[in-house]
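Quick one, T. Sequence first:
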Amino acid sequence: MTSICVGELKPKLTMKKLLAETYPLLRLEQLVYTKPNDHHCGEQWGHSEVLGEVTPRSYVAKTQDGLVTRNRMSLRSHVTHPPCQNNQS
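Structure tokens:
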């Protein structure tokens, strides 16, 4: 029987905690990009709208195909950039 040292588990738990803390919370009705599920591997991320929070890191989002539940790592904020300003005189 192989024993597992507690020190071996610590880096993995630290990494999970680090990843959980780096993603900001999403607001209701916020526009996000949604990662496609495993059956649609290779497709582009789709547009969706956050409808609610299921657990601390899991959200329900409305896509054009219906409702999906995604972990925070599979949702990216939809950033709208301000229009470019030309500084021509």
